[in-house]
Amino acid sequence: MEFIGEFLGVFLELPIDSNFTYKVIVEDCETIIPHEIFRLALLLPAAICTLLLAFTSTRINVKTGLLNGRPGLIFPMDVLKRSHRFSYAAAFGTLARLCADIVFNSKYAFTYTGPTYLKVFIALISMLIYGMGYFPLFAGITASSPLGYFVATMFTWCFAAEFFANSFCRQNFDYSYVILILWVLPELLCYLYLSISLPARFVLSIVRPRKKSKLAVDFESSDDLYESIRKSYQGFHVTKLFKKPPPPTPPAEGLKDKILSLLKSLSQKIFYKRKQGFRYSARMISVMAVGFILLYEVTFYLFMLLFQYFQYLEEGIIVQLIAIGIDFQPGEPESITILRDGLNLSYYFVIAFRGCFLTSLLIAFAINAVFLLHYMTSYRNNLLSLYKGQAQHLTARTEKSNASLVVGSMRYAGYQVGYIGWGFFIQFLLLLIFSMTIATVVTLWGYLEDFIIAQIMVLWPVALTSLVLNFAQLLLSKFLFLQEHGNILSMDNRRLFFVVTYFMFFYNIFIGIFSCLMRILKSIVLGALFLPRLDHSTLPRKFQQLDPGFDAYCGFMHVESTHTNPVAMVFISILQAESLTSLKRNKINDINVLPFDEKQEMLARRKRKAIWKWSLAYTLVNNPEISLQRRLVLAKERNENVKEIFLSHSAPFPEAVPPPKFALNDAYMQEEKL
């Protein structure tokens, strides 16, 4: 900030006496806990806590017999689940300022003064250090165990202490600490939420320990597994599919009800419309939280900074005007008069540009904040469409490999935060250029009036002619060249149509020049407007795969829909619940079985096996596609020729000879006879 203060001092250093002191009181205070020392000192405790959490997990595939399968591989966040959403969002919210420093300041975890070409590797090492420092916090939340909550609580309090010490240090601000609290309010709320909720969960996990479920759905606290499936988000979604959709809302009758209904529909279109029963994923909530906090804190900081700098500029000009005299004095030197006119013009520019800077900043923030809500709505609509097998807006899965989809899913979160930051900055610059142009024209209207009017007199016939010709072509097409006033695409008066088309060729060349300029302007505006939104590509349909942001979003959505489909999750959970219930039942039967009942138990086992085989046969005969898929899987296991099996089943059943069907009751009767 020192160079800005020096620049303002040089700008206001006029050749007259003045008592004005060039002091800009917006400066960083002395850091109590240095950033680099804190990040490096956190590595050893983070590594120890990560190792402790790893011993609470067991390995699944690699050397499970060694040390009873411990330590296992732990992960910081299950990106495919919807549990602990707000805890993850708050934890990522505490990273917002660090993300802002990475995006805008390229902040590293340690000081580097070596060659420039090695800075890329220093940045990679810094990202690894940042990730390792926050790893125990996320891994503790994911573990959902007493040790996990304890580790997460300790690291939360550690980060909170560093945040409070460096954010509320004593400095020479000329505004109160209330403004400082408002600046860091979202981050402060995230720290408060984690500092209170995590210790509470730690106590509850000790007082009322809960056994982890092995179900695919988001488990609810219930002793009945099937009831847990019904209460889960996926179970609610599947239950809703079997219900009859509610009737449409009747239209409003009274004037008051119509106005309220119109306002409600407008607010839902502009801002957000809630869909009952839908639950956003933990990663989506976390990304939106980081994006909003990043926008809020950067906007607040720039607003206070710009407001104060323009205030000092205004005060400096006023002091100079008072020193030389605000009003014209008879007999004063011509240099003083020229200086006074320059100061007055500078004063008007400072007032105008202050409004331009602050207004552009607030509008850019409002646009991106509303876009975050629109982005969540778009995510919900696209995900529900993918659940139904529809992907019109996204790149089809057949056009991309599975590996590229997974890579896009991994890139998505980081890309989204970076695009939000740079999109906000570019929108602010474009709005600033536009508003400053208008402010300059208004301020210098007395000097530019004749020039602007002359240009308007030259250009208005072009714009008017373009509008008239376009409107005339539309009217002729609808009422003269199409049948039934344009309701059907069938030509009428063809000879006249050919004549008009011939002459319009020359006119449209003239109109095309103006249309091309409008196309360029629209591309710039819409490209800058939708730059932060990864759900809309800034490239044409055939070139969307060249858009890295949209490509990452498509990969994220396809991976999300494939692994979180509620119907599939409920079906898998029912199978898991059936398996767990049968295992529990068998354990009870094994305890109560007597030696002389072994023969009866063997017969019961054979009976169950026969029932399963007949049920499998019934399912495969009535579902040829499933039968084909099963044969392909078995062929791969037996190393058979898969191509021959596929070709032998490629032809559908003839219509005259339908596939045979078995009745399940007949299968049971046949089994009883056996």
TrEMBL record:
GO MF annotation terms: retinol transmembrane transporter activity; signaling receptor activity
Protein name in the entry: Stimulated by retinoic acid gene 6 protein-like isoform X2
Stretches that traverse the bilayer: 37-55, 86-104, 116-135, 147-165, 177-204, 284-307, 347-373, 419-445, 451-476, 496-521
UniProt main location, coarse: membrane
Keywords for this protein: Cell membrane, Membrane, Receptor, Transmembrane, Transmembrane helix, Transport
InterPro entries: STRA6-like
PANTHER family per record: COILED-COIL DOMAIN-CONTAINING PROTEIN 180 (PTHR21444), RECEPTOR FOR RETINOL UPTAKE STRA6 (PTHR21444:SF15)
Membrane topology, from the record: Multi-pass membrane protein
One Gene Ontology term, aspect cellular component: plasma membrane
Highest taxon, organism lineage: Eukaryota
Keyword Calcium: no
